[in-house]
Design brief:
5-stranded antiparallel beta sheet; 5 strands
């Protein structure tokens, strides 16, 4: 039996990449936004699950912005970074970069924020570990994440009140 050195995994980040295929595009060759949003949601799920080691579901999506088009044949890379944790919720920022494999040109295509909630085996929200903040920059990003998370919660409450 070989001894394999396993590096400590980076619990608060994940990267998912795939080539944009014709079945994901409209007749002009642009990839449908929903296809990329699905990839972003998967990346947010993986990022949250790696942190909490439990099932995680999407509770809210905030401010997805489309910066540039994605075409058939582009390499789409989603990077998810956990920037804030509360009791059972996690805020994940997703950055989508596309690379033209013919030219090597790289551009930022989309950005967005996903609120993920950890669930226990019975499907109830369950506490998550706090995010490890190792630098002043980490603390700054965490505070910005906290403010965004609280704004999302406040908007959600307001919408629920309006629907009653």
């Amino acid at each position: 039996m070989n001894n394999i050195s396993i590096k400590k995994r980076y619990k608060s980040r994940s990267i998912i990449a795939q080539v944009a295929m014709p079945t994901q595009a409209n007749p002009a060759g642009n990839i449908h936004g929903g296809e990329i949003m699905k990839m972003m949601d998967n990346c947010a799920y993986v990022t949250a699950q790696k942190h909490c080691l439990q099932n995680a579901v999407t509770a809210a999506v905030d401010e997805i912005e489309f910066h540039s088009p994605v075409y058939v044949g582009n390499l789409i890379t989603c990077t998810g970074t956990l920037i804030y944790t509360s009791r059972s919720s996690m805020l994940v920022t997703i950055d989508v970069v596309v690379e033209c494999l013919k030219t090597g040109a790289v551009t930022c295509a989309l950005t967005g924020f996903f609120v993920m909630v950890a669930l226990d085996a019975s499907g109830k929200p369950t506490p998550v570990s706090p995010l490890e903040l190792k630098s002043d920059e980490d603390r700054k990003i965490f505070e910005e994440g906290r403010l965004r998370y609280e704004a999302i919660k406040a908007r959600r409450k307001m919408v629920c009140k309006l629907q009653m």
